[in-house]
Design goal:
This protein is of the alpha/beta class. It has helices at residues 10-19, 25-37, 57-74, 85-88, 116-129, 161-172, 184-193, 217-225, 236-239, 246-260, 276-279, 296-306, 310-333, and strands spanning 3-5, 39-47, 78-80, 94-101, 134-136, 176-178, 199-200, 229-232, 265-267.
């Protein structure tokens, strides 16, 4: 089995390309690159960007779902994961775990129900019909559920009473509860609510790079204590804003391994080289030697040179995440 990337923004690229009339981008562009890089499975969230959050969150979610749905129906090489067997025995196809990056769209959900429990039930019934199995609670905003990093002074921080119900429902349904992007108050609130493991799909070590998107040593240990995972992030700003390199990325892995052990580390690369809004933004940079998925084979080579064994590389690449899935999907989330 190859490498599992537990955070990929490919859906955004697919939908924007289809708007331009470019269809089949999943197969024609991404498939050959992923195969060359050795990536065998991806977690792909539906990412509702900031400009849609306040009024058009639900509409943007539907647009993303429809665009992705068209691509996956036309694809020869990818399939949406329904059970863990789709990952363990994928045949000739690359499995995609469909997820959500931010849940702001819940606030515009077309339901006028006063009963919150029934509203949550109907929302999750909808999500499950599309085999969505993952959720990041917030993305740089405060929403009805939780507060995200970068949302300071915009409202009350932490997990709301409604958010606690949502998180409990996510756990019951076997969703991957992802705490990347939530702020510190929401992070700790979620850990008080859940009884099982959670992940941070694309976050690095705050000790090495003092960014609110990264995790303190205390947070790293809390993720490990609940049996969860941290996906190391290749985005330059979370590696080192002064000297973002592939070697500094490995320093983050070294630090996490020292703090929580290899068994709690995965890869959540968060590559954005194919997203125009990032590439054209002022100050855009990439980490030297780690600017796209094609750099992953060299990363594995450098990790070997740094002293990691094949067993440890396999653990970070796929074994740890598969063990995590078996824990949460054993509860009925398949």
């Amino acid at each position: 089995m190859g490498i599992i990337d537990i955070h990929s923004d490919i859906i955004h690229h697919l939908v924007e390309e289809r708007k331009k009339g470019n269809k089949g981008v999943l197969d024609s562009y991404h498939y050959p690159i992923l195969k060359e890089a050795g990536v065998s499975t991806l977690v792909m969230p539906l990412w509702v960007e900031k400009e849609y959050q306040k009024n058009l969150g639900f509409a943007r979610l539907i647009e993303l779902l429809c665009g992705f749905g068209a691509e996956i129906q036309e694809s020869k090489y990818f399939q949406v994961v329904q059970t863990i067997e789709d990952i363990l025995e994928p045949g000739d196809k690359i499995p995609i775990i469909l997820g959500l990056e931010g849940l702001c769209f819940v606030e515009q959900w077309p339901l006028s129900l006063k009963d919150e429990d029934e509203q949550i039930h109907q929302i999750f019934s909808f999500l499950k019909s599309f085999h969505i199995k993952h959720g990041i609670l917030a993305w740089y905003e405060i929403n009805k559920i939780a507060s995200g990093t970068g949302a300071k002074d915009e409202g009350i921080l932490g997990l709301s009473a409604f958010g606690k119900k949502v998180v409990k429902k996510m756990e019951k349904e076997g969703f991957i509860i992802d705490l990347s992007h939530v702020d510190d108050p929401s992070f700790w609130d979620v850990l008080e609510v859940v009884s099982g493991p959670v992940i941070c799909s694309h976050s690095n070590a705050r000790t090495l790079c003092n960014h609110p998107r990264n995790l303190s040593d205390e947070q790293l240990k809390a993720i490990a204590s609940c049996g969860g995972l941290v996906g190391v992030n290749a985005h330059w700003a979370f590696i080192d804003p002064q000297n973002p390199t592939i070697h500094r990325f490995i320093d983050h892995i070294d630090h996490m391994a020292e703090q929580i052990g290899i068994e709690h580390i995965a890869f959540g690369f968060d590559f954005t080289n194919y997203i125009e809004m990032y590439n054209q933004a002022p100050g855009f940079r990439t980490a030297a030697g780690l600017d796209s998925v094609l750099c992953v084979p060299n990363l594995m080579k450098l990790l070997r040179e740094r002293g990691y064994s094949e067993k440890e590389l396999d653990a970070m690449a796929h074994t740890n995440f598969l063990k995590y899935l078996k824990k949460i999907w054993k509860k009925g989330g398949e």
